[in-house]
Amino acid sequence: MFKFALSTLALGFLALSAQPVSAQMQVAESTPITLTASVVDLSCNSVYGAAGPDHRMCSQACFDQGIPLALLSEDGTLYLPVTMAMGQERGDKDLRGHAEHTVTVTGKVITRGGVNTILIESISM
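The chain above was modelled as a monomer; its predicted structure follows.
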């Protein structure tokens, strides 16, 4: 009986002190940015060089199948959209309607291990 009470008490403390994973983690240092970029299908663009208006339907179909969209800036830098929602939503979800278009994006860039990610705050055409 004592073990049961102790276990119940311990689980209660864990439940009270538990926070979502995103609340426990610190965001890496980020840089605010506004950039003009093309919304590209990461797979077709990086493997085949496919891009542009003729590739728009393919980009959207790939997005629907789980292939990420990315931002290719005018200087050739590739940015992968991410989100703070950690698995609850896609970082590129707002880009589908802009596939293979040029957009202006504001957000916060985090570069780690040679990969540029962006937390998108706004998108305009």
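The helical segments are 2-17, 21-24, 42-48, 56-64.
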